[in-house]
């Protein structure tokens, strides 16, 4: 039923495009543009209501209400915040590299949007089902480091530069255990196609045989997201706002939207790799996918409002001395178990 509904919807939209007099190959281009616009609209909603969810959960953890005045239960607070960011003056500091300063937010935001293209929300809901989908995700996510470095360096502010240098050290350090934690899943699934990884979890979710890899993935992903307790890139008690100190208005809003788009993408990736993806009883597959993804998002929010910030030396020691050896051990154990039990 789900497949028929999606196929009918896609066919209907394409027929409308063709009826406007647009012929191949331009029809495919128009369909791609429409899909990108829908994706950006969904991204905007995720960013707006990701902020709302975080503020409500933070209020609950701290025994306060959170947003509750604008709209029913504060649901329109996110809209008010968006209007406020759009109306704020956009300032560029004197001495800044203006071109790089302007480009940096988009360099950070674009990878967050591109990752969504290969996420399999269900068996039939995936924009581009790449055979190398997992490799594509790893490559695209790495680009965000460049955007943060550009933002910090171009601002002509010492706090921004320190935040940017921290981001490079942090994100490069945690990329290794993050990638190695995924290799166990790849070994069990026998594929780096994300849909194939989900199909391989029909009987048992990979969080069970790969529990150590899952823990390493979550810790490393939190560091890659620059979230507490690893938010040294914008440690407000030390660096004001780190790499984002000199940004205002909608450019700062783009950084903010990228953060929540990345949280959703990482949560969806954890769901795909370890939590069985769209598999689940009774409910439609995409509903199960969103339930699992939202549960992971709640976990990232809960971590932010529970744990204290680490020092930079503690953060780097955790990566190189703890997570990296454990991720290599996980690969060794997975390979050994696969050799003796599956070959």
Radius of gyration: 21 Å
The tally of strands reads 0
Largest sheet, strands/sense/barrel? none
Sheet-strand content, in percent, reads: under 5%
Shape: globular
Give the CA-CA distance, first to last residue. 38 Å
In total, the number of domains comes to: 2
**Which series of helices and strands comes N to C?**
HHHHHHHHHHHH
Number of helices: 12
Mean residue pLDDT: 84
The low-confidence runs, each spanning 5 or more residues with pLDDT under 50, are none
Secondary structural class:
mainly alpha
* Residues in helix, %: 55-70%
Structure report:
The chain has 343 residues and is mainly α. The protein folds into two domains: 1-87, no CATH class; 88-342, no CATH class. It has twelve helices and no strands. It has helices spanning 2-19, 26-61, 77-87, 98-115, 133-154, 158-189, 194-199, 211-224, 236-239, 249-274, 285-304, 312-342. Helix 6 (158-189) packs parallel to helix 12 (312-342). It is globular, with a radius of gyration of 21 Å.
Descriptive tags:
single chain, globular, about 350 residues, 2 domains, about 70% helix
Helices and strands in order, then pairings?
Layout: H1 2-19, H2 26-61, H3 77-87, H4 98-115, H5 133-154, H6 158-189, H7 194-199, H8 211-224, H9 236-239, H10 249-274, H11 285-304, H12 312-342
Helix pairs in contact: 2-3, 2-10, 3-10, 4-5, 4-10, 5-6, 6-8, 6-12, 8-12, 10-11
């Amino acid at each position: 039923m789900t497949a028929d509904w999606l196929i009918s919807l896609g066919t209907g939209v394409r027929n409308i495009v063709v009826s406007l007099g647009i012929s191949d190959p331009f029809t495919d281009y128009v369909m791609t543009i429409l899909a990108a616009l829908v994706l950006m609209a969904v991204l905007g909603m995720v960013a707006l209501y990701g902020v709302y969810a975080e503020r409500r959960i933070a209020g609950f953890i701290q025994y306060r209400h959170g947003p509750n005045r604008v709209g029913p239960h504060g649901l329109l607070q996110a809209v008010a915040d968006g209007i406020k960011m759009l109306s704020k003056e956009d300032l560029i500091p004197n001495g800044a590299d203006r071109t790089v300063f302007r480009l940096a937010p988009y360099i950070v935001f674009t990878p967050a949007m591109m990752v969504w293209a290969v996420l399999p929300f269900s068996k039939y809901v995936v924009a581009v089902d790449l055979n190398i989908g997992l490799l594509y995700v790893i490559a695209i996510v790495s680009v965000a480091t460049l955007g943060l470095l550009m933002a910090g360096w171009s601002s002509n502010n010492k706090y921004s530069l320190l935040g940017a240098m921290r981001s490079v050290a942090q994100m490069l350090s945690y990329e290794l255990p993050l990638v190695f934690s995924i290799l166990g899943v790849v070994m069990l699934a026998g594929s780096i196609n994300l849909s194939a990884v989900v199909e391989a979890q029909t009987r048992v979710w990979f969080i069970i045989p790969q529990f150590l890899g899952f823990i390493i993935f979550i810790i490393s992903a939190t560091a890659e997201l620059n979230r507490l307790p690893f938010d040294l890139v914008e440690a407000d008690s030390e660096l004001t706002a780190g790499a984002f100190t000199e940004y205002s208005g909608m450019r700062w809003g783009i950084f903010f939207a990228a953060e929540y788009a990345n949280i959703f993408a990482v949560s969806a990736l954890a769901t795909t790799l370890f939590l069985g993806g769209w598999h689940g009883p009774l409910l439609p597959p995409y509903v199960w996918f969103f339930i699992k993804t939202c549960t992971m998002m709640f976990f990232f929010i809960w971590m932010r409002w529970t744990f204290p910030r680490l020092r930079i030396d503690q953060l780097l020691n955790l990566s190189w001395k703890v997570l990296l050896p454990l991720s290599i051990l996980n690969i060794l154990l997975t390979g050994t178990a696969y050799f003796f039990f599956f070959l």
